[in-house]
Amino acid sequence: MGYTGIENGGEIGISFFSQGSFRFVIKYVGGGTEWQLNDGGADFGTSIPWAGNTPLSIALTRGIDNKYSIQMNQGGDSYTGTDYEANSGSFAIDRIEIFSSKQGAGQNVGFNNLTVVSDLDQIPVNIDAIAKGNLTFDADLILDNLTIESGNRVAVASLKT
Length: 161
Description:
Distance between the termini: 41 Å
Strand order of the largest sheet: 5-4-3-2-9
Number of helices: 0
CATH class of the largest domain: Mainly Beta
Helix content: under 10%
Order of helices and strands: EEEEEEEEEEEEEE
Number of strands: 14
Structural class: mainly beta
Number of domains: 2
Largest sheet: 5 strands, antiparallel
Radius of gyration: 18 Å
Shape: globular
CATH architecture of the largest domain: Sandwich
CATH topology of the largest domain: Jelly Rolls
Strand content: over 45%
């Protein structure tokens, strides 16, 4: 995630939702000193300071039920949280919202290299799936129903010889 200036009281970040309910947010509040997280309780700090025009790398990993791990890196600063338990409920994320308020003229927040990776070992057998992007499966997976949306492709790579 990249970002530039922000006014006091403004916010930039990304929120995660499951079945329409808030689950998690990564945000910076203008006038504050560090990036904050909230998993359904109170905001808590990461010790990663504001540094406009410096990329912030975020890796959020879902665990079982409402467990998650997070790794954030910005320049020489980092924050790691392992096996946290979200107060907000199940971490089955199905929607994200990127937000920005009070950044001022000519300011922006942006994301690149945004990826969603599934741990195929954790996917139950005999599930329905919808391909909404170009996907490659390189592990055994059983799907009862696979829908491939127009314009997308699914590649199946054999690992067995």
